[in-house]
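Q: I have 48 residues here and want to know how they pack in 3D. Can you give me a structure?
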Amino acid sequence: MGTQTEIAKQIITEKADYVPALKANHSTLYSQVKESFDKAQAQQLRSL
């Protein structure tokens, strides 16, 4: 099997769906993604 980057490129080329894993040991990116999801969830709750 190839690297994760190669696998992701192949999935995109095939127009397939995927969700990459993100571990907390990538602290900056993890915090940014978590903040985005938290904001989206809060917005959705306000619109109910």
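Q: Anything worth noting?
A: The chain has a mean pLDDT of 86. The radius of gyration is 15 Å.
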